[in-house]
Specification:
heterodimer, A: alpha/beta, 11-stranded mixed β-sheet, B: extended
Chain lengths: ~475, ~160
């Protein structure tokens, strides 16, 4: 692809990276990867990924792989907007259940959608009654939420968060375009806003359910901590766990000796202790000590060696991420989101590779969402020009079947890449089919007001690096 | 980052290479078929009404009412947007398309109430058509007046 272009590498360097290239995305900018690319000190497990999909979405290539399929677009509600809020509510509840947790185990909900004033997330949070942080990143909200959620959990402020995003075809149409029943013809580059919601529970697994379970979990955690090299099974053990440790081993949380782990946080809380601070094993094996899916089989790996515990944990983990920049290449056509977003995706991928000091071959898959059919090749060309030859896998092309479903270029909407990530990509990582996935969610940050006033479309892309259980961080 | 003019130009060229052409031929053919079918239905109306002895201007008015009703009903049952997706301007241009542009927002915004919803939003699509239709009529009438010295079409036709 690069052979077809006449753009010199250096020129495109500027094109995509701009003048801030030298600032913070260089490898070795800091032990924690200071700058837009974050390498988490402790890989953050994805405890559950759950999807609620609309009827049209379930007719696509991912048929039958969604956790819940909706019969209609209203879900028993009176309006599209409240239906979308309901999708989020359902997704959050299902995700918490799938993680073997209860609402009280979740410290915050990070929710986003496409509606004005985050209509869906706000009303979902009203129903769910979790502390809520609202996010807007248009179709990139999923990446934004995973990045922020992982950062909050890794930092230790929250034990667990649920990230939920949604979109609703009809609600988005009426807000951004025309009333749903209005007849108009869309160009081939138009994309179809997906209906659905996806929720992800991130953070440290609870060792048991309920207060009694907590106690039992502590016991196991403590045992594990003392008994073996797995010094940090307790990192996310929740309040009870932390209290237990405070009593136990005092605060030896050597931040200095192991700057890249969770010990620093624990030390600051004075809950940390021998286990929390000591980092005998690399972060890559940390996740192994988290109990299995249900949370109750924590004891199974209590005394296990890392090798044996590896099989017990089947959770993908978020190891790194890159915050997107707003990139605006001057396109103004609101029916060509893929074209507008492609440079943002390429920019974030380049900066992530640079920040991680890795090549594209480091990843088994680089998935973008949602550049769709005519945007993905553009991003590939832009990357090819920079010497990064890669076949992107685009979520917008994955959600619908272009031969049977008349969606033009593909899917879009906050739910699109979230549904594909949770129903298609994440299971591949969990199964170990892919060791390492770079998920790059793209969003067009336009509003009806901005494009009616003639502004071009600002776009953003956030990258999240997700690794298989057992993979190096 | 807002790209510089040079960067924008270069990117527009890259984009253009990957951007699909509009399927003009298909669109034209489908617009002809869909638009033609709607007009044929109107013609059947007109011929029927004329055959029953209605004068031409009244037959024309009732034909317009009939096609509007068809457009509104098809919008209400959720078919007109599908027809327009295929037929494009062939579905939008006839008066049934005008009906669609009023009924669709009325349906959509009913949830915001009769005043702020239906009342305020009903003409959100048709409004510009009416505004500029009236404006264009005024300009045309002005030209007509300037050329013929009077506004009576019938007397002009009678000459």
């Amino acid at each position: 692809m690069s052979s077809t272009t006449t753009v010199a590498g250096g020129r495109l360097d500027r094109l995509l990276l701009g003048d801030r290239e030298a600032e913070g995305t260089q490898p070795g900018a800091g032990p924690l990867g200071h700058g837009p690319t974050i390498r988490f000190r402790r890989p953050v497990p994805v405890l559950a990924a759950v999807t609620v999909a609309g009827p049209f979405e379930d007719e696509g290539p991912l048929h039958g792989r969604f956790d819940r399929k909706l019969r209609d677009h209203l879900a028993g509600q009176r309006t599209w907007e409240m239906a979308e809020a309901k999708f989020q509510e359902m997704a959050v509840d299902m995700a918490i259940e799938a993680a073997g947790l209860r609402r009280s185990d979740i410290d915050a909900m990070l929710g986003g959608d496409l509606l004005n004033q985050l209509g869906a997330a706000s009303f979902a949070a009203r129903a769910i009654d979790l502390p809520m942080l609202g996010l807007y990143g248009a179709c990139s909200t999923c990446g934004q939420g995973l990045l922020l959620g992982a950062a909050l959990c890794d930092a230790g402020y929250f034990r667990r968060v649920v990230v939920v995003v949604s979109s609703h075809h009809h609600a988005a149409e009426r807000q951004f375009r025309f009333p749903t029943e209005f007849g108009n013809q869309r160009p081939p580059t138009a994309q179809w806003t997906a209906t659905g919601a996806a929720a992800f529970v991130l953070g440290w697994p609870e060792a048991g359910a309920g207060s009694g379970g907590d106690d039992a979990g502590d016991g196991r955690d403590g045992e594990r901590g003392r008994g073996g090299p797995d010094s940090r099974g307790d990192d996310g053990g929740g309040r009870a766990t932390r209290d237990a440790h405070a009593n136990g081993q005092g605060g030896r949380g050597e931040r200095g000796t192991s700057g890249d782990d969770g010990g620093g946080r624990a030390a600051r809380d004075a809950h940390a202790n021998g286990q929390g601070g000591r980092r005998d094993l690399g972060p890559g094996t940390n996740g192994h000590r988290h109990p299995g899916e249900s949370g109750v089989d924590a004891g199974a790996d209590g005394h296990g060696t890392p090798a044996s515990t590896a099989s017990a944990d089947r959770r993908p983990r978020i190891v790194a991420g890159t915050t997107g920049r707003v990139v605006d290449m001057g396109l103004k056509d609101p029916f060509d989101m893929g074209g507008a977003e492609a440079p943002a995706a390429a920019d974030t991928i380049l900066r992530h590779l640079r920040g991680r000091d890795k090549g594209p071959e480091h990843f088994d898959a680089i998935a973008t969402g949602d550049l769709a059919r005519y945007g993905r090749p553009v991003a590939e060309e832009l990357l090819g020009d920079r010497g990064v030859e890669v076949n992107l896998r685009d979520c917008g092309e994955r959600l619908y079947d272009p031969r049977r479903q008349d969606v033009h270029a593909g899917g879009s909407g906050a739910a699109c890449c979230a549904l594909v990530l949770a129903a298609d990509l994440m299971p591949k990582v969990r199964a170990g089919e892919w060791q390492r996935l770079l998920f790059v969610a793209t969003g067009a940050l336009l509003s009806p007001t901005s494009y009616q006033q003639g502004e071009s479309i600002p776009c953003i892309a956030h990258a999240v690096e997700i690794v298989a259980p057992g993979a190096d961080s | 980052m807002l790209a510089s003019a040079e960067q924008r130009q270069r990117y527009a060229a890259i984009r253009a290479r990957h951007k699909p052409q509009l399927p003009h031929l298909t669109n034209l053919v489908m617009a002809f078929i869909v638009g033609g079918s709607i007009c044929a239905v109107g013609q059947i109306f007109y011929n029927y009404l004329s055959g029953r002895g209605l004068p031409p201007d009244q037959a024309g008015a009732f034909t317009a009412v009939g096609v509007v009703v068809i457009g509104a009903v098809l919008t209400g049952v959720g078919l007109y947007d599908e027809i327009a997706r295929v037929g494009g301007m062939g579905a939008s241009l006839p008066i049934s398309g005008f009906a669609n542009s009023i009924v669709a927002p009325a349906m959509e915004y009913k949830r915001e109430g009769w005043v702020l919803g239906v009342g305020a939003k009903m003409f959100m699509v048709a409004g510009p058509v009416i505004v500029y239709g009236v404006l264009t009529s005024m300009i045309a009438a002005g030209i007509f007046l300037a050329v013929h010295g009077q506004l009576s079409l019938q007397s002009w036709l009678g000459k």
